[in-house]
Specification:
With 286 residues, the chain is α+β, with helices and mostly antiparallel strands. Helices cover 26% and strands 31% of the residues. The chain has two domains: 152 residues, 3-Layer(aba) Sandwich (Aminopeptidase), CATH 3.40.630; 130 residues, Aminopeptidase (3-Layer(aba) Sandwich), CATH 3.40.630.30. It has seven helices and twelve strands. A twelve-stranded mixed β-sheet has the order 1-2-3-4-5-12-6-11-10-9-8-7. Strand 3 and strand 4 form a beta hairpin. The radius of gyration is 20 Å and the shape is elongated.
């Protein structure tokens, strides 16, 4: 077990390409982190990495006006021929020790394979789904956001999430690199003067990945656009109690996303990850 060095770059990318096929986001997100090698733990000889774990420090809101430093775990990978040796488990423990020394209150990750992460506990985040609401006449039109809109989007995001538990404090680099990677094609970021939404279209369906600002107005505009596109069903990553939902959904069905996991390091994550209104937007995955 050791920390990675720049000499491992090629074998790290080969490992991740083998373990995460079709995940084009992995490399640009990793390269956007100037301290990445020091926080990447690997097994294998230099230039011949067979397993990895990486963590990224992240500032998240506690919902009480404070901000916590947490360690976001990502790029957990082992080549098939090296599996069954406990490499991932030992690398995760090394990363946890480093996160603790780095002052991270707790560790956070998102996964479809929770059984891999002993010591982390799953938590639920709300989703809603249902039929599209009837369009409202006079809703302001939405347009595609551009790079020049980032300061406006960032201001809307900060106001919308200032008191929302588990949301990320996004800096300028986050908006310049991470948001465009996660919300690149086929996702569209649509904006008007009152707010924005990150959405993905699929046949007669619409998924809302993120929303900020005047949600009733944004949802009314989105419903009008969706109706013109023949959409009949919607799924949204918002609170069950979101006040603007009647403008988006004709009927609200409560669902949950259980891909999130947290592990105590210096503090208990439960008051944040299980707080009412806790939200983690997809553009903030690690």
């Amino acid at each position: 077990m050791r920390r990675a060095t720049p000499a491992d770059r090629g074998s790290l990318y080969a490992l991740w390409a083998a373990c995460f096929p079709g995940s084009a986001h992995v490399r640009p997100l990793y390269e956007s982190d100037p301290g990445r090698y020091e926080r990447t733990f690997v097994a294998g000889a230099p230039g011949a990495v067979v397993a990895s774990v990486y963590y990224l420090p992240r500032a998240v809101r506690d919902g009480l006006g404070g901000v916590l430093r947490v360690g976001g775990v990502a790029n957990v990978a082992t080549l098939p021929e090296a599996r069954g040796q406990g490499l991932a488990r030992r690398l995760l423990e090394a990363a946890c020790a480093a996160m603790t020394a780095d002052g991270c209150a707790w560790s956070l990750l998102f996964t479809g394979t929770p059984e891999v992460y002993a010591g982390w506990e799953s938590f639920s985040l709300p989703l809603v789904s249902g039929p599209l609401a009837p369009p409202v006449a006079g809703a302001p039109p939405l347009r595609r956001a551009h790079a020049a809109d980032r300061p406006e989007l960032a201001a809307l995001y900060e106001r919308h999430n200032a008191g929302r538990p588990l949301t990320t404090v996004r800096d300028q680099a986050h908006w310049a690199v991470r948001v465009p990677v996660w919300y690149g094609e086929p996702v569209e970021v649509l904006v008007h003067s009152g707010g924005y939404a990150a959405v993905r279209w699929s046949g007669d369906g619409l998924e809302v990945l993120e929303v900020a600002g005047e949600t009733a107005s944004v949802f009314a505009s989105l419903t009008a656009l969706a109706a013109r596109r023949g959409v009949t069903r919607v799924r949204a990553r918002v609170s069950w109690a979101e006040s603007g939902l009647p403008f988006l959904l004709g009927e609200v069905r409560r669902e949950s996303d259980r891909t999130g996991m947290a592990r105590p390091l210096l503090a208990d994550p439960a008051p944040v990850v299980r707080a009412p209104g806790a939200t983690h937007w997809p553009a903030d995955y690690f």
